[in-house]
Amino acid sequence: QVQLVESGGGLVQAGGSLRLSCVASGNILSINTMAWHRQAPGKQRELVAAITNGGSTNYADSVKGRFTVSRDNAKIAVYLQMNNLKPEDTAVYYCNVNLISRQYKVQGYWGQGTQVTVSS
User: Fold this and answer.
1) DSSP, res 43
2) DSSP 82-114
3) 54: Cβ–Cβ under 8 A, 6 or more apart, which residues?
4) What residues form DSSP beta bridges with 93?
């Protein structure tokens, strides 16, 4: 079993910043890609940013230049630094981790989600 614990969401004014954290623990041999997704009310969940175990990153066009994804392999953690936040960034943000278990199974896990609300 794997647990993902997210933190760092909250209410911020437009133009402000937040930093999300997601820490994984449990039956983990190695971590592949770590990512952040978000889901706004009435919309589909979308990829925000992803980072491979080699450090390559990928961002949604809507957040490029404002958000930065990073990871700490020793802590099995992924972070999302969000700057210059806009009201349209309001959503529940979910951490997603693709990993290999100690039984050599490739598995994907989701965090519980953390609410980010940006006021205008």
Assistant:
1) S
2) E-S--GGG-EEEEEEEEEE-TTS-EEEEE---E
3) none
4) 38, 114
**Cα 15 from Cα 51, distance rounded (Å):** 25
Question: Which residues lie across from 23 on neighbouring strands?
Answer: 5, 77
How far apart (Å, rounded) are the C-alpha atoms in residues 97 and 118?
A: 26
Strand arrangement of the beta sheet that strand 77-82 belongs to: 2-7, 18-26, 77-82, 67-72
pLDDT tens per residue across all 120 residues of the chain: 999 999 999 999 999 999 999 999 999 999 999 999 999 999 999 999 999 999 999 999 999 999 999 999 999 999 999 999 999 999 999 999 999 999 998 899 999 999 999 999
